[in-house]
Amino acid sequence: MLQIPDVYLAPLLPILIVLAGAVASTVLGFSLPRRALTIINLVLLGVSAVSMGALWNSGATAFGGGLRADNAAILLGISILVGSAMTLLVSLDTAFRARVSFPEFDAMLMYSVTGTLLIAFSGDLITMLIGLEIMSLSSYVLATLQDSRRAEESGLKYFLLGAVGSAILIYGIALVYGATGSLNYAGIAERTAGLTPQNVAILVGGALLLLAGFAFKVALAPFHQWTPDVYTGAPTSVSLFLSTVVKVAAFAGMLRVFGGALQNAPGWASVLQILTAATLIIGNAAALFQPNFKRMMAYSAVAHTGFLAMTLLGVPGLGGAALAYYLLVYTLMTAAALAIVAALQRTEAGMSISDLRGLYYRHPAYAVALAVCLASLAGLPPFAGFFGKYLAFQAAFQNGYVWLSVLAALASVAALVYYLRPAMLMFMPDRTPAREYPHGERAATTFTVALGVVGITVLGILPNLWYGWAANPAIWETLAGR
Amino acid sequence: MIHLMIFLPLLGSLALLATPRRWREEVAGFVAALTLGLGLLIWRGGGAELFSVNWVPALGVTYSVALDGVSLALALVTAFMSLVAVLYAARRIENPGTMLSLVLAMETGLLGIFAARDLVLFYVFFEDALLPALMMLAIYGKPNRMRALVQFAAYTLFGSLLMLLSIIGVKYYGGSPTFALADLVNYPVTGVTQTWLYLGFLAAMAVKLPMWPLHAWLPDFHEQNHDSGVPDVMGTLYKVGGYGIFTFGLPLFPDASEQLRPILMGLAAFTALYAAWIAFRQTDWKRLLAYAGLSHMGLVALGVFSLNETATIGAMYLLAFQNVYTGALFLSVGMLQERVGSVHTRVGGVMTQAGALGGMTMALWFASIAVPGLAGFVGEFSVLLGSYQVQPWITFVAGLSTIAAAAYALTAYQTTFWQGRPLGGVRVADLRHTEWLVLGLPLAVALFFGVYSSPALRLIQPAVRGVLSALGGQ
C-alpha cells in the first residue's frame, strides 16, 4: 500500500519563499535589470522572515519530522536571513565594480540561502545533506563567478576541498545510519542509548566522520586551510556571504546533529574539544601576522569558529542559546566590517592594514563604524561581541571545559592585538594621500553598515532583546524532536 | 541622581560631537562641572543607596549601582580630576573637541567602575574605560605609540579575560542566582576553587594596579601619551585595581586572600621599592611620574592585602588622593613641556622665570612624597602603620620606598627647576589664566585633606570596617 507523505506547506513556507526568489532571478533575469531582481529578493527575504515569525512556537513539522520549523530553526534562520539581506544590500553597490553584476549572482545567492535554511530546518540527516549540498554547490559558483584568475583559483580550491568534506560527511551519515538504523535525528538520539558494542564503534566512527565533514564547512582547524584563500580570492561581497551565512548554516547543522541527534553519543566531544583548541590557537596566531585586512578578517573568521564551537561543548540548553545569540552578533559585525572593506577597497584584493592609517580623517563615519565592529569582534563591552564571547565561555566552562576556557581567554588576547591595531591606526593622523576607492560611500552600503553597528550596539547594551528569545532551554533540548 | 551622575559625561561626550566647534569647550566644562556637582550633592545626601534592576535576566546579570563609602570618595575624586583635565585640555590642546569628548566618555567608564555592585557590570565599565584611553593614545600619542598601545591593550585585556572566567566561575561554583555582589557573597565558593578564582581575579587587578611583574605597560603608556598630560590624568585614575580588590576581591575570596596574604604583601612591597629605584634613574618626567605612581600603588596594594583596618583605610585614602596630586603633576609636566619644549628632567633653571609653576609643582611633589600636612602623608603613614602590625619586615622594605621617593623627586626637581638656566634657553612664561586653577585646585584639595582628613575618613572608615568585619576581623 502506497503511503502518501505528510506534506505540509506551512513549515516549508520560509524556504519556499526564498526559493521563489531564486527561481524568479533565474527566469526574470532575461527581462529585468539586476538591481530590480535584487530588490525583489530583498523583499522576499523580508517576507520569509515574517513567515518565520508566524511559525514561532508552532513547532510545525513536515515529511514525518524530516523538516522541523521549531523555534531553534527560526532563531537560526533569522540570522541567516539577516546575513543574506546584508550581502544583497552590499552587492547593490559593489557588484558592478566586482564584475559580478548579473542576474546569475542573485540566483545563485538565493539558491544558496535556500540550502542554508534547509539545514537549519532539517529534521533528519538526508534533509540536512540536501541543504548542505545546495548551499555548497551554489557557493562554489559564487566564489568563481568573478572573471578573474584569483576568483577561479579560490573557487576551484573551495570546490575540491568542499567536495572532499561532503564525501566524508556522507560517509559519516552512512555509518551513523548503519549503527542506529535511522536517519531521523530523533530516531538516532533514541537509539544511541541501547546499542551493542560493535554498533557503538560504528557510531563513534560515523560521528567523527560527520565532525570532520562539518569541520571542513565551518573551517575548524586543521580543516580550515581553504578559508583564507577562498575568502581573499572571492569578491568581497561573496566573502561576506561565505563567512557569515554559510558559516551560520554549517553551525546550525552541527548543532542539530551534535546537540540533538548525537548528544549522547560518545567520543565526538573530546575530539571537538581538541579541534576547538587548535582552531583557537591557529586562527588567532595566524591573524596576527596578516598584512592584508581582508585576509586578516578571513583568519578572524577562523578564530571565531573556535569561539562558536565552544558553545557546542556546552549542554544544549545553554550552548544552543549561546550559539544563537553569538551567530546573529557575529553575522552583524562581520558583515558590517566586510561591507566597509567592500566599499573602500581599490581592488577586490582588499586593502592592507597600513592603508587604514588616518581613515578617521577621510571617512569619519566609516572609521568609527569599523572601529565599533572591530571592538565588538574583539569582545569589548558594551558591544554585543562581548556577550557573545561571554556566553560561549560560560557554556564551555559550566560543562567542565575549564582549561579550554582559559585557553580561549589567552587566545583572545592575540585577537585583541590584531583587531586593535587597525582600529587604532585609523585614528592616527596621516599626511599621505588617501588609498581608498574615491566613490566608496553609497547609500545601500552605508545602510548595511549602520544596521550592523546599531545592531551590535543595541544588542550589546540590551542583550535581552535577542537572547531573551533564545534563552529558553526548552527550545534547545528538543533539537532532536523529543 | 546616581544614574545621571554616571551617564551624564557620556551624554555630554556624545553631545559634543553635535556641538558647534566654538562652544565645545564650554559644553564640556559645563558637563564636567555638573557631574562633580551631582557627586557633591550625593555626598551631602549621605551617599546613594543600592539600586538594582535586572539587566539580562536570562543570565542573572543585574544593573546594580551604589555610591557610598570608598566608592563615593573615589567617584568624587574622579569627577574632580576630570573637571581639571577638561579645564586644562580646553586651553592647551588645539581643536580639543575629540579629546574632551574622550575625557568625558572615560569619566563615565570610571564612575561606572566605582558605582557598579554587579560583577558583570563592573567588567563592562572596566573595559569601557579602556576604549577612550586607547583612542587618546592613538589620536594624540607620540611616534612610538603603537607599541605602547598594543602592550597596554594586551596586558589589560589579558588580565580582564581571566577575570571574566573567574566571574563566571564564582557564580557557577557558588550557585548564586545573579552576579550582584550581595548575592555572590551569600553563596560563597570554598576551598581550592576559591584560590584559583581569586588568582584569576587578581590577574586583572594586578595589571591595573599595577603590580610587578605585570607593570611593564605603564611607563610606555605614559611616555607615549600626549605631552599635555591630560590623557595621563585619566590614566592615573585608571588605577582601579586597588579598589577592585577591596570591593570585590576581599568579600568574595576571604579565605584565599588570607592564605595568599604574605606572598601578595611581599610582591606589593617589592613593587613599591623596585619602582622607586627605577624612578630614580629616569630622565623623562613622564616616565618618572609613571614609576612614582607605580611605587605608590605598591603601597596601596600593601595596605589592601594586609587585611588590617588601619592599613586598608590608609590604602583607600592614598588611592583617592594619589589621583589628585599625581594627576596635577602630570598636568604640570604638560605645562613645562609647553614652555621649554621638552619633558627631560635636566632642563635647568625654570624656577627663575616661572616661579609660580615651580612652587606649585614643588608643593605637589611634597604631597606625593608624603610630607606631613599634605594628603599623601595620611595615606602612606596609615598603610605603613597598619601593615607593620601584620608583617613588620615586609613593611620595612616597603617603607624604604618613601625615602627613595624623596630622593628621586627632589633630584629631578632640582635639576629641572633650579640649577643654571642653559645659555640660549627660551624665556619661560609663568602660569596664566586657568593654569592657576588647574594646579591650584588639586593643591588646595591635597592641602585640605592633609590637614583635615575627617570628611574623607568618615566616608572610608565604615566601608572598610564593613568589608573587614565580614572577613572575620584582622
UniProtKB/TrEMBL annotation, chain A:
It is an enzyme of class 7 (translocase). The chain crosses the membrane at residues 12-32, 39-60, 72-92, 104-122, 158-180, 200-220, 240-262, 268-289, 296-317, 323-344, 365-388, 400-421, 442-462. It comes from the Bacteria. GO terms for molecular function: NADH dehydrogenase (quinone) (non-electrogenic) activity; NADH dehydrogenase (ubiquinone) activity; quinone binding. Keywords: Cell membrane, Membrane, NAD, Quinone, Translocase, Transmembrane, Transmembrane helix, Transport. The keyword NADP does not apply. Residues 122-412 form the NADH:quinone oxidoreductase/Mrp antiporter transmembrane domain. Its main location: membrane. It is found in: Cell membrane; Endomembrane system; Membrane. It catalyses: a quinone + NADH + 5 H(+)(in) = a quinol + NAD(+) + 4 H(+)(out). GO terms for cellular component: endomembrane system; plasma membrane. Its EC number is 7.1.1.-. InterPro entries: NADH-Q_OxRdtase_suN/2 (IPR010096), NADH_UbQ_OxRdtase (IPR003918), ND/Mrp_TM (IPR001750). It is a multi-pass membrane protein. Signal peptide: none annotated. GO terms for biological process: ATP synthesis coupled electron transport. Pfam families: Proton_antipo_M. NDH-1 is composed of 15 different subunits. Subunits NuoA, H, J, K, L, M, N constitute the membrane sector of the complex. NDH-1 shuttles electrons from NADH, via FMN and iron-sulfur (Fe-S) centers, to quinones in the respiratory chain. The immediate electron acceptor for the enzyme in this species is believed to be a menaquinone. Couples the redox reaction to proton translocation (for every two electrons transferred, four hydrogen ions are translocated across the cytoplasmic membrane), and thus conserves the redox energy in a proton gradient. Belongs to the complex I subunit 2 family. HAMAP family: NDH1_NuoN_1. This is NADH-quinone oxidoreductase subunit N. The lineage of its organism: Bacteria, Thermotogati, Deinococcota, Deinococci, Deinococcales. The gene is nuoN.
TrEMBL record, chain B:
One of its GO terms (biological process) is ATP synthesis coupled electron transport. Residues 116-402 form the NADH:quinone oxidoreductase/Mrp antiporter transmembrane domain. InterPro entries: NADH_Q_OxRdtase_chainM/4 (IPR010227), NADH_UbQ_OxRdtase (IPR003918), ND/Mrp_TM (IPR001750). It is found in: Endomembrane system; Membrane. The chain crosses the membrane at residues 27-43, 72-90, 97-115, 121-140, 152-175, 195-215, 236-254, 260-279, 288-307, 313-336, 357-378, 390-413, 434-452. It is a multi-pass membrane protein. GO terms for cellular component: endomembrane system; membrane. Pfam families: Proton_antipo_M. Keywords: Membrane, Transmembrane, Transmembrane helix. GO terms for molecular function: NADH dehydrogenase (ubiquinone) activity; NADH dehydrogenase activity; ubiquinone binding. Its main location: membrane. Belongs to the complex I subunit 4 family. This is NADH dehydrogenase subunit M.
